[in-house]
Design a protein that fits this description.
The complex is a heterodimer of chains A (322) and B (255).
Chain A: E1 3-12, E2 25-33, E3 37-41, H1 48-55, E4 63-68, E5 71-72, H2 77-83, E6 84-87, H3 99-109, H4 114-127, H5 143-153, E7 161-165, H6 173-188, E8 192-197, H7 200-206, E9 209-214, E10 217-222, H8 224-231, E11 235-239, H9 243-253, E12 257-258, E13 262-266, H10 271-284, E14 290-294, H11 298-306, H12 314-321
Parallel strand pairs in A: 3-8, 3-9, 6-7, 7-8
Antiparallel strand pairs in A: 1-2, 1-4, 4-5, 9-10, 11-13, 11-14, 12-13
Helix pairs in contact in A: 3-4, 5-6, 8-11, 9-10
Chain B: H1 2-20, H2 23-44, H3 54-83, H4 86-91, H5 99-125, H6 134-161, H7 165-169, H8 171-180, H9 193-200, H10 204-215, H11 225-253
Classes of the chains: A alpha/beta (322), B mainly alpha (255).
The structure holds adenosine-5'-triphosphate (ATP) and magnesium ion.
Chain lengths: 322, 255
């Protein structure tokens, strides 16, 4: 299949002259295939939003090239804007307008004929389960409803590519599930989706391919299964009151401690294996304060693939300190 | 081009809707000017001697003061659009994104038209006696709207440039200051000389003088009303143009 979004060697720095903050994007390459979902996965400050802003024509890269459906995002921004939609990290709807008013406005601004706007708005309100609140001001809606409206606003034109920047951050599990269903429906209708997220699980559920971004570059790319295999399986995690307790248990399990008081043993999650691990812990003596079986997290992915725990980039940290 | 007009009108309709549902903005536009008018007339009215009823003198000034307060609301609204992701979304669409600014300006003009009607209404109910033909009334309202226009474009520029709602709110200080140091509330020659120079050469004074001579009502008017009117219109159009272009450029530059 052909690529509908490409980026080659994207560079972007926000450093002012005289300051030495590192570039936010430092040679970022990626590709989204037509009809597929690509998840750009990374911690705070990794450069996800910056990437989305460049691909959606809001920001010019310092160097490198990006295209959407063959159009250059800088030189042919106008053509690109005809076929994309952007749902940014913040919900961009007016609290003081009703849901229907918000969507109608966006339809007018997308230059759709009035009749089409009316039909599409009704269609989307129903599809996103918002009809019951359509004529209430959005300021009175729940976070999940607002996010769904935000997404609907991006779908009025049936875009070929949809950019979603952390669409489920801050949503409860049920709203998140509902939003995933919506995204799957969009993909079924033929839209390609470029998604950023901090959650491995989200990438896993939605995306055919996952690109891991750190320090402004892609550090790993593949199917969710491939990435998880690189990280390893789930683990039994034990937390002890003191480091010396952890030090006594870890050798008995054949692993090293993590963070002094934590011990992590890889497991396939079967009852037999977990019981065996716990028996070994009991035999070693110290009683853990807390234990759980945990699937690999984004932190684990990062730890494994980059050698450091996913952390805020130096630029972001400096900004907070300033 | 046809799309530009449709974008302008869609954004104007949006801003009007937002303003009409914003309690703060409505209080600023409707209640506050009336309170200020009553305060000036009832509290200061007896103390200021300008050879006519103070209400005849002060009414136009109250309207311009209200325009200043309203402009602060515009700065806040623009700042919110810039930082809330709304402008990002508009920029990713095939529309003309800066029309979001002209939308706020149109809404401000309509809002101030309502303020003007209400202040004149209340003022006439408590004793303001203008003597003006229909044409003079229209000219006076046009003068007021020209003033509102430039100050709103300045507010839009401020909204684009600042990085926080607090900074946008700080704009209120500036726009409050201008009418006070003009002939809006007291004759300029009662000001200390170092302020007088500024008061005589800032845009509020000729605008006020022009509105007063159009509505007369026994207020002593300037020696050369036509010259003052030309100066007032020149100020407003010039500043309006400068700030509109600056706001547009700043909007394009701010990423
Ligand atoms: N306009 C800007 N001016 C200066 N620095 C910026 C600007 N935009 C982003 N940055 C910096 O670039 C870095 C990457 O930001 P970006 O928003 O792309 O990260 P992100 O991966 O989206 O993070 P998050 O998960 O927090 O949304 C951060 O250090 C941020 O402070
Ligand atoms: Mg982000």
């Amino acid at each position: 299949m052909a690529a509908i979004v490409t980026a080659e060697g994207l560079q972007k720095s926000f450093a002012r002259r005289g300051s030495a903050s590192p570039p936010v994007l430092d040679g970022l390459d990626l590709e989204l295939e037509e009809g597929a979902v690509l998840a750009l996965l990374g911690p705070n400050g990794a450069g996800k939003t910056t990437t989305v802003r460049i691909l959606s024509t809001l920001l010019r890269p310092d160097a490198g090239r990006a295209t959407v459906a063959g159009f250059d995002v800088v030189r042919e921004a106008r053509q690109v804007r005809q076929i994309i939609s952007l749902t940014g990290q913040q919900v961009a709807v007016d609290d003081k307008q009703s849901g229907a008013e918000n969507l109608t406005m966006m339809g007018r601004l997308a230059h759709l004929p009035r009749r089409v706007v009316r039909e599409r708005v009704a269609e989307l309100l129903t599809a996103f389960d918002l009809s019951h609140a359509a004529h209430r001001q959005v300021g009175t809606w729940s976070g999940g409803m607002r996010r769904r409206l935000d997404l609907a606003a991006g779908l009025l034109t049936r875009p070929r590519v949809m950019f979603l920047d952390e669409p489920t951050t801050g949503l409860d599990p049920r709203s998140r599930q509902a939003l995933w269903d919506v995204v799957r429906g969009v993909v079924d209708e033929g839209t390609s989706v470029f998604l950023t997220t901090q959650y491995l699980e989200e990438a896993d559920r939605l995306a055919q391919r996952v690109a891991l971004v750190d320090g402004g570059r892609i550090v790993a790319e593949g199917t969710p299964a491939q990435l998880k295999r690189q990280v390893g399986e789930a683990g039994v995690e034990l937390t002890f009151a003191t480091a010396s307790d952890a030090d006594r248990v870890a050798p008995a399990l054949g692993v090293a401690t993590v963070d002094g008081t934590r011990v992590r043993v890889p497991t396939d999650g079967s009852v037999g294996h977990v019981r065996a691990v716990l028996s070994a812990v009991e035999a070693a003596g110290p009683v853990p304060e807390h234990w759980e079986v945990r699937a690999p997290s984004l932190d684990d992915v990062f730890l494994t693939l980059t050698g450091h725990v996913g952390q805020e980039s130096p630029a972001r940290t400096a900004e907070v300190a300033a | 081009m046809t799309y530009l007009l449709s974008d302008v009108s869609t954004m104007a309709a949006r801003s009007l809707r937002l303003v009409s549902r914003d309690l703060d903005a409505m209080i600023t536009a409707v209640v506050l000017p009336v309170v200020i008018l009553l305060m000036f007339v009832l509290v200061f009215g007896g103390a200021v001697d300008i050879g006519t009823d103070y209400i005849n003198y002060v009414t136009p000034g109250v309207i311009l003061l209200a325009a200043g307060f309203g402009a602060a609301n515009t700065a806040l609204a623009v700042e919110h659009d810039m930082s809330s992701g709304m402008v990002d979304r508009l920029r990713s669409m095939p529309m003309t994104a800066w029309t979001v600014l002209s939308g706020h300006v149109v809404a401000s003009l309509v809002k101030n038209l309502a303020t003007t009607a209400i202040v004149f209404g209340v003022s006439m109910a408590i004793g303001f006696r203008p003597e003006a033909s229909v044409l003079e009334w229209l000219a006076a309202v046009g003068m007021i709207l020209l003033f509102v226009g430039w100050i709103t474009w300045l507010a839009a520029l401020v909204g684009v440039l600042v990085r926080s709602p607090d900074a946008a709110g700080g704009f209120t200080f500036f726009v409050m200051f201008l009418p006070y140091v003009s002939s809006a509330f007291v004759p300029v020659d009662t000001l200390p000389s170092w302020l007088r120079g500024f008061a005589e050469h800032q845009p509020v004074t000729p605008v006020i003088e022009t509105v007063r001579s159009l509505l007369s009502g026994g207020v002593p008017t300037a020696a050369d009303p036509v010259g003052v009117a030309v100066l007032a219109v020149g100020w407003c159009l010039g500043l309006g143009l400068v700030f509109a272009v600056a706001a547009g450029l700043a909007f394009r530059a701010r990423r």
